Amino acid sequence: MSEERCQGSTDTCTLTTSDRGDVVVVQLRGALDYTVVASVRDDLESALRRLRDRALVLDLAEVDFLDSTGISALIDTARTAGKVSENSEPLRLVVDHARAVTRPIEVAGLDGFFMLYDTLSDALAP
Q1: Which of 125, 116, 126 is nearest to 58 (CA)?
Q2: What SS3 string covers 51-87?
Q3: Among candidates 28, 31, 83, 14, which has minimal Cα distance to 57?
């Protein structure tokens, strides 16, 4: 398991990556916004390179802010996961239905695009 501070103009998030059998889990805490999105994208690309036939579970339950650049990074990650993983659900998002995350996803009309889960346990089950 590795934990890093997302590199941006401010220290607004931490990212933890771990391998759990048939999934790679990335847990993000804090804000996913323009100040850290470049660093988060780099970390997500690194996780995507490890997938093969596994899924990527992105745990956003502790994200307290999500802007359009963060949503764009999620879309790009979903598209790439679909290309590099042979898993039927290559990207699973844990949102805990926290308004800070679900509201921007719903407003963008992406709640049908992403596989959304309430808990990490639920996302690990399929």
Answers
A1: 116
A2: CCCCEEEEEEEEEEEECHHHHHHHHHHHHHHHHHCCC
A3: 28
Please give the distance of CA 19 from its chain centroid, rounded to a whole number: 14
The amino acid at 90: P
Angle made by CA atoms 54, 60, 61, in degrees to the nearest 5: 120
Who's near 36: CB < 8 A, 6+ residues apart?
Answer: 6, 7, 8, 12, 13, 30
Q: Tokens 């988060």 identify what position? A: 40
pLDDT the model gives residue 2: 56
Tokens 């992403």 belong to residue: 114
Using alpha carbons, list the distances in angstroms from residue 114 to 30, 76, 106, 109.
Answer: 20, 12, 10, 10
Q: Per-residue pLDDT tens for 39-63?
A: 999 999 999 998 888 999 999 999 9
